[in-house]
Amino acid sequence: MMELELIGGNPYVGLFESQLQTSIEWRKSTAEDRIDRLKRIRSWINKNQKEIREALWNDFRKPEVETDLSEIFPVTSEINHTIKNLKSWMKAKSISTPLSMLGTNSKIKFEPKGRALIISPWNYPFNLAVGPLVSALAAGCPVILKPSELTPHTSSLIERMISEIFPNHEVATILGGVETSQELLKLPFDHIFFTGSTQVGKIVMGNAAKNLISVTLELGGKSPAIVTENADITDTAKKLIYGKLLNSGQTCVAPDYALVHESIYERFLDELIIAIREMYDPNYKGIIESPDLARIVNDRHFERLEGLLKDAISKGAKLEFGGECNPHHRYVEPTLISGISEEMNISQEEIFGPIFPIIVYSDLEKAIYYINKKPKPLALYVFSQNKGEVNQVLEETSSGNAVVNDCVLHFLHPNLPFGGVNHSGIGKSHGYFGFLAFSNEKGVLHQRVGLNNATLLRPPYGVKTRQIIKSLIKWL
Ligand code: NAD
């Protein structure tokens, strides 16, 4: 009854209600049941790889190789890893009994949270919709999935995939934009898994609070790279250019900007330019001709990037490389800028495109202070061959994840928790941590029948009870 009052008039109420029975039945689902669902997704993906590549190409000219590596592989690897480990993840965990609980025994049982809502972004539209779905199904949760409206080809393909594999009362896709999301957010789900911007993350959490729904928020922000004087300059430049230009910079964990020690600045800049040319213009035809550089997803984001660049230049930033913006192709040339200051918009907002500000620092303390003044990033990258420097950066900063002498790679590690902290996100995903996000860790205590330790604590509270409690406080 309560639910109906809360959600009256909502177009998705029928669908939502239809998943209630599933969520109750799936509490008893075995690892085999859940693995079977995952296998069906894997086999659909294997049969439809060409369609996935085409959809991504049509949405923003994503290169096939990048689709294979960053859309298909992370999902199939998530499925394979989950299939291999699900039985042990689901097993109730026995825990030790302290003296104060003598006579009892306890365990942690992982029960599915229940009906889950997954809202996903456009930048890795297949990976970031289906990846969380794998975790939800592993945990035993039915799902309503709302993919991004900005990548219509991929989102329609996801809808087709889901409808071919699952009935709506198990998993359903709802296509639509902001209004659709807002209607879905009114429903009293048991968990919401949102991937997107920090700004919309706040809206999602505000809505979830109305029904006290738990959330996983995978958000964005400005992920810094520190390049110290002890870094291998050539190696670092190649890795940063790859991480920055993958998906044309439209990656949540892309290095947003680099803080570079003054003693290596000039050489580092040269190496960055060499790396861009080697990767995206090996035959000197012009970077715009490279088939390996994705386009900006839509006109709004193209104009946003062009605006960031113009604003920075007009306020005194120096263009070190690139700078071409071609609206017909929604092409933004890989661009390096220096001399940026805090009043420029590029210093404040997540860049999310192929523009790379390089900031010079004179001592590591100052670089760390620069990072700590800003909201905690999703990822932090430190490039140095000096252990002391690396430890100093890791200990004196806070970020969702950190990588030493590389960037972006951690996303693909199945045993690492992935996610942000505060502004860059709440909760973790991937592998076991994704399974946990959709599970309620239910503590279950078994007591013996009849006389037991707890009976000694009952009223009337005499001298003996007081003595027992005193010793509990003193010794246990
Ligand atoms: P976005 O926040 O604009 O949109 C994400 C989803 O939210 C979409 O499905 C959209 O329809 C919905 N949405 C948009 N506005 C809404 C509103 N007012 N109310 C309810 N729902 C709304 O994000 P985006 O532009 O699709 O993706 C880019 C952002 O996502 C970047 O900030 C990036 O860093 C972040 N991101 C984070 C991760 C991660 O794993 N942490 C991964 C990819 C992208």
TrEMBL record:
Residues 25-442 form the Aldehyde dehydrogenase domain. One of its GO terms (molecular function) is aldehyde dehydrogenase (NAD+) activity. It comes from the Bacteria. One of its GO terms (biological process) is aldehyde metabolic process. One of its GO terms (cellular component) is cytoplasm. The keyword Lipid metabolism does not apply. The active site is at E218, C252. Coiled coil: none annotated. It comes from Algoriphagus zhangzhouensis. Belongs to the aldehyde dehydrogenase family. Keywords: NAD, Oxidoreductase. Pfam families: Aldedh. InterPro entries: Ald_DH/histidinol_DH, Ald_DH_C, Ald_DH_CS_CYS, Ald_DH_CS_GLU, Ald_DH_N, Aldehyde_DH_dom, Aldehyde_DH_NAD(P). This is Aldehyde dehydrogenase. PROSITE patterns: ALDEHYDE_DEHYDR_CYS, ALDEHYDE_DEHYDR_GLU.
